[in-house]
Amino acid sequence: MISDSHIHTNFSGDSSEDPHNSVAQAIKLGMEEMCITDHHDFPLPLSISAEPLEVGPYVSYLQDLQRTYEKQIFVGVGIELGLDPMCADALADCARSYPWDFIIGSVHHVRAMDPYYPLFFEGKTEKQCFGEFFEATLENLRAFSDFDTLGHLDYVVRYGPNKNKFYRPADYFDIFDEILRFLIDRGICLECNVSALRRGLGQPNPHPDLLRRYRELGGELITIGSDAHKAIDIGVPFDVGRDILLGAGFTHYAVFKSRKPQMRKL
Ligand SMILES: [Zn+2]
Ligand SMILES: [Zn+2]
Prior knowledge:
- By secondary structure, the protein is an alpha/beta fold.
- The protein has a single domain, classed as TIM Barrel, CATH 3.20.20.
- About 35% of the residues lie in helices and about 20% in strands.
- The strands form 2 sheets. A 7-stranded parallel sheet has the order 1-2-3-4-5-6-7.
- A hairpin with a 2-residue loop joins strand 8 and strand 9.
- Helix 4 (about 125-145) packs parallel to helix 5.
- The longest helix is centred in the middle third of the chain and has 18 residues, at about 125-145.
- The N and C termini lie close together (about 10 Å).
- About 45% of the residues are buried.
- One zinc ion binds near residues 106, 108 and 151.
């Protein structure tokens, strides 16, 4: 079973899952590793997570959890950092101040607003908003990039008025190529986040065209995450994600320990 590298628990404002349940589910599924990656978003208007994470107690808790289950599964001490150029110093401080196994860098905000809220799309075309989100992603990378994988690159298409119905990744390849080359040059992974498949969007984030583009440009480092906020969603649907990745030309994916990638066969 593919190891899940993107899991939320009740340390995230938008999850009420007991971390022990999450570990039990991953063990039940036969995973050899898993990584808990709760949200740490700095407070901004309309932020999806209500409060920033208390990082110290969170890390201690996960280290205890790691020890408790070490004979059954490797539980990674991870975090999903919400990127924002205004918070670059605080993000850098968080990345280097704790013994992380794995850090996801994710854009959840543009103009201090989460596209999760319809207000983000008001007064502009969907295409403008998508483009703005991708431009902001590149701006974020230039401001702070001390993380191991770029989370759900085209997250914004989950929430447009028409979701991904009119989304064509090729329309944005100019900006995507810059983003993907940035990752490749620095050895940062691209995440294949399968949660949109559970929501019926028919694509992971990013879209298979982007996974193929990354491969064409020489990208090899992929991480896989369910972005589960409930234990029952862990590893779902990794069978579909696996087929998409194989179809895009990948043979392996990465899991992280002490921020070092280890390659696993798909
Ligand atoms: Zn996220
Ligand atoms: Zn997440």
